[in-house]
Design a protein that fits this description.
Structural class of chain B: alpha/beta
Strand order of the largest sheet of chain B: 6-7-8-3-9-10
Shape of chain A: globular
Radius of gyration of chain A: 22 Å
Largest sheet of chain B: 6 strands, mixed
Number of strands of chain B: 22
Helix content of chain A: over 70%
Distance between the termini of chain B: 33 Å
CATH topology of the largest domain in chain B: Rossmann fold
CATH class of the largest domain in chain B: Alpha Beta
Oligomer: heterodimer
Number of strands of chain A: 2
CATH superfamily of the largest domain in chain B: P-loop containing nucleotide triphosphate hydrolases
Strand content of chain A: under 5%
């Protein structure tokens, strides 16, 4: 492979990471560095927590064949409303309320999943119906869309992140810098490096193919530096937002599921070729069911994060959340035909959207133009993806 | 000396990584049938794409002369205007449109604001009669079989006023009767002055219709053989294609046949949609350990349906009958059950039903046996890699890495990946449905070797094939299937194509005219 091809190959593989870096540099310059203020780094996590969670779930749906779930915004709103009403109006124990919210979300997911997976009603239609149903039911639960404040449910709000003190407490009482956060960052980097080295060692020992040493080290160093930089900024702010822990658990869990488990493999197989998957002895109905039921579960979690962040539930919450999640997936390299996409990719996609959003806020871009820019970014990302896979030819000749 | 209709001079076409065509020359005389043969990847299809303008003028070097003038085709419209029409291997018909609509797609009757439907269907019917179809042009394409669809493609080409008809693997999905009909049609057109180019792997068909044969190997023209002047025997053509004499197309095997491994009794299955139609009708058979069992029959005889209905009821409705394996009765209600009981079905449609083209070789290899590389639902990716490499080497799959996407492989190598997948599932019985369809002579030989290897390990192989020489060359025993029934059983040694055809015809009853019996025997046995 000559050097030009190598560069092309590199760009193709890391398109969105490169785009993310460029966007960060662009807005950092435009905002005279404000983008990377500790509070803003914190904001990227806090403001986009729901996107990370929903996009992860959406990826599974998209993997099964480019099918999207339009109902997640409404489910977020509905589950949030149910939780708020239970905790505030009925004075229910928050733990119990959280369990009920999870169950509610999963049941809604399962309801839609049943029609999609076993009756084979197109997902677009089932979830469009869900979008209407649960938006309407949210307002019913909230008695005509009244706002229910959950500011008094301190434990709940703190756990799911939102108000001013939703951070992991600093046990070392650092002055001006959160030492717990630094320790956790160091720990995270150590675990990451150890795992990466361990995988390589076992592969070498068993004489399997491994990445070249140079790129392998570069990649490891870059990821470590990125974690360190984010961790440091968060430490300069107020430490680790609680919601980051939730998001991290979701991301790690689903990354593992999709890349290392048999169940995860099924999602890719179904999206790649359903008939072949079926003839390989895999129950494809179950795979569809899992994807959409799981989407309900994660929508419930996003619902909790949403009401905790706003310390209230309202009939208009969650609107167009599904679009944020879907856009993140496609920007992050998921294929609109299914079978292709990774959790880390989707997270990069969500981050890219988040940074653009925040960047435009800090540089004072008109609210309406933000939508325009986001729309264009989505289109550009997918065009780039499709065209680069076609070997750089813009116009399809197939 | 007839007039040269088409001449392609020193055509060179380079793709980013490979030189697909290297100074290829081709001369086609008016009114002849010219065959182009070569192994997969030799450059036959690329050459035709250059000719038809799919690879536009400028993207290749060399010259094309048609009717004496040099042509610069930039797209297929240009070449079609000259009367050069190509019919691709993959049929390009829209299933939910009528035959008539398909026939005039892009070439609509009437004006662009008002399509003249009466003319469309009237003309459509006219062309259908020419190719020997009695269907109405208002029939939906999805309602006719593949064989007839191929004929519709030809009718479509005629509707475009074709003067030079190019057929790329026209019979790859047709059965023998259908193929015969198509080839005879070519001969008929020839009498009427049509010039045709045919690309095919089936050498018997080529020697049947072709006046001249151009052999292409590794992107270069090797030779052009003229019927009646040069030796055009299959062995001779194969020598040109592979650059060596294939002394034997089928590897030798010593049969060590053991006990009955699988026995199927009174197996009946109905069509999943038209519930009253019996597709498999009271079939009973058995296969022994170490045996290669063939199932012969025409397309639509129900062979695939039989295999799939046995394979965990993956086809059909109201299935009845009994399956015994090693003397024990099995109840296979799902594909999972079948795999668990060590039965594997390797589909005829490797792209549609067999492989995940967007996935790597390794993921495809392990898909049917993920338990084999995982522990409590967690995949051991190192082990997966190892397994994939092991099978890649065992089956001699040509690929730089098992991380390669299956969609990037050639047909023969895809077939090997598909076989790897099912061999890794470790079955006792493998049902191979058209295992060598659309792959070249060399790869076929390798697949036969793999089959021999499997039975020598004591496994049973059931081979469904539409290529009779292949069944005769490989099988210990052959069942003949016709219209859902088993109409005969032949010992491998005593079976001949004539006997098989006779059984099929007598089984099919009135459906096939007796005059066709002899016609079908164009394929001379060596």
């Amino acid at each position: 492979m000559n050097s030009q091809n190598k560069v092309l190959d590199f760009v193709r593989k890391y398109t969105m990471v490169i785009a993310l870096v460029l966007v960060v540099i662009f807005f950092t310059i435009r905002s005279d560095g404000a983008l990377l203020y500790p509070s803003n780094v914190n904001n990227i996590v806090a403001q986009n927590a729901y996107v990370f969670v929903l996009a992860t779930g959406m990826l599974l749906c998209i993997l099964t064949g480019g099918n999207i779930d339009l109902s997640v915004g409404s489910i977020v709103c509905f589950v949030g409303a149910v939780g708020a009403v239970l905790m505030v109006n009925s004075g229910m124990n928050p733990v119990l309320a959280v369990i009920i919210m999870f169950i509610a979300g999963t049941l809604i997911g399962a309801w839609q999943a049943f029609w999609i997976a076993y009756v084979r009603i197109p997902p677009f239609i089932v979830t469009l119906s869900g979008m209407l149903i649960f938006r309407g039911l949210s307002n019913v639960v909230l008695k005509n869309g009244e706002t229910v404040s959950i500011a008094n449910c301190k434990g709940f709000v703190k756990l799911f992140g939102g108000g001013a003190d939703c951070y992991v407490p600093d046990v070392f009482h650092g002055n001006g810098i959160n030492i717990t956060c630094l320790v956790a960052t160091a720990l995270a980097i150590a675990i990451f490096v150890l795992l990466t080295v361990k995988t390589r060692m076992t592969r070498l020992k068993k004489q399997y193919e491994v990445e070249k040493l140079g790129p392998w080290i570069t990649k490891m160093v870059i990821i470590s530096v990125a974690i360190a930089a984010i961790g440091f900024r968060l430490a300069q702010n107020k430490g680790i937002p609680n919601v980051l822990l939730i998001v991290a658990v979701v991301i790690i869990f689903y990354s593992y599921i999709t890349s290392n488990t048999v169940t995860g493999r099924y999602f890719y197989a179904v999206g790649g070729n359903e008939k072949a998957t079926k003839l390989s002895g895999i129950n494809t109905n179950k795979v569809y069911f899992l994807a959409y039921a799981n989407m309900g579960l994660l929508s419930a979690l996003a619902g909790m994060i949403t009401i905790a962040r706003f310390t209230s539930a309202q009939g208009g919450y969650g609107e167009s959340y599904e679009m944020d999640a879907i856009a993140s997936c496609f920007i992050g390299g998921a294929s609109a035909y299914g079978g292709i996409g990774t959790v880390p990719g989707v997270i990069i996609g969500a981050l890219l959207m988040g940074v653009i959003n925040l960047g435009m806020n800090t540089t004072g871009v008109d609210q309406n133009m933000k939508q325009v820019v986001k729309g264009l970014v989505l289109l550009a990302a997918v065009i780039f993806d499709v065209v680069s896979k076609r070997g750089g030819k813009l116009i399809s000749k197939e | 000396m007839a007039n040269i209709l088409l001449e392609m001079r020193n055509i060179t076409k380079t793709f980013p990584a490979v030189k697909a065509l290297d100074n290829v020359n081709l001369q086609v005389e008016e009114g002849e049938i010219h065959a182009i043969v070569g192994e997969n990847g030799a450059g036959k299809s690329t050459l035709m794409k250059v000719l038809s303008g799919i690879h536009p003028y400028g993207s290749y070097e060399g010259q094309i002369f048609y009717n004496g003038e040099e042509c610069h085709f930039t797209n297929t419209k240009d070449s079609e205007r000259k009367g050069i029409v190509i019919i691709h291997q993959e049929l390009a018909l829209v299933p939910y449109m009528t035959i008539g609509e398909n026939m005039f797609l892009g070439n609509e009757r009437g004006s662009s604001l008002k399509i003249n439907w009466n003319e469309t269907y009237a003309k459509g019917n006219e062309y259908l009669r020419v190719v020997g179809l009695s269907e109405s042009s208002r029939t939906l394409v999805k309602d006719i079989g593949v064989g007839k669809q191929q004929l519709v493609e030809i009718a479509k080409a005629l509707a475009k006023k074709a003067k030079l008809l190019i057929l790329d693997e026209p019979t790859s999905s047709l059965n023998e009767t259908e193929s015969k009909h198509l080839l005879d049609l070519m001969l008929k057109f020839k009498e009427q002055g049509m010039t045709s180019i045919i690309i095919s792997h089936k050498l018997n068909e080529i020697s049947y219709v072709a006046d001249k044969i151009t052999v292409i190997r590794d992107g270069m023209t090797i030779e052009t053989l003229t019927k009646g002047v040069d030796d055009c025997s299959e062995a001779r053509i194969i020598r040109g294609m592979v650059g060596r004499e294939l002394s034997d197309r089928f590897p030798k095997r010593e049969s060590h046949i053991g006990e009955i491994c699988l026995e199927v009794k009174d197996w009946t299955a109905y069509h999943p949609v038209y519930n009253e139609r019996k597709i498999v009708d009271n079939v009973s058979f058995n296969v022994r350990k170490g045996e290669v069992l063939g199932i012969s029959g025409l397309m639509g005889a129900g062979r695939t349906e039989l295999a799939m209905s046995i394979f965990g009821k993956s086809y059909g409705d109201s299935i009845s009958g009994k399956i015994y394996k090693d003397g024990k009765e099995l109840h296979l209600h799902s594909v999972q059950d079948a795999i668990k009981n060590k039965i594997a079905y390797v589909t005829e449609d490797r792209k549609g039903n067999g492989l995940i083209l967007s996935n790597a070789i390794k993921t495809n290899t392990t898909l049917a046996n993920l338990e084999g590389i995982s522990n409590k639902g967690v995949i051991d990716r190192d082990k997966e890699y190892k397994v994939a490499v092991e099978y890649k080497e065992k089956l001699k799959t040509k690929t730089p890495s098992v991380e390669q996407l299956v969609g990037n492989l050639s047909g023969g190598n895809q077939q090997k990946v598909l076989l790897s997948k099912w061999m890794f599932a470790n079955p006792d019985i493998l049902i191979l449905d058209e295992p060598t369809r659309g792959i070249d002579v060399g790869a076929k030989y390798e697949i036969y070797c793999i089959i021999n290897q499997l039975v020598s390990e004591g496994k049973s192989v059931i081979m469904i094939s539409s290529e009779m020489p292949e069944l005769l060359g490989m099988c210990d025993r052959i069942y003949v299937m016709s219209e859902g029934k088993f109409v005969g059983e032949l010992d491998g040694a005593e079976a001949t194509q004539e006997k098989i055809m006779a059984m099929i015809i007598s089984g099919a009853g009135q459906a096939v005219q007796s005059t066709e019996i002899n016609d079908v025997e164009f394929d001379k046995k060596e």
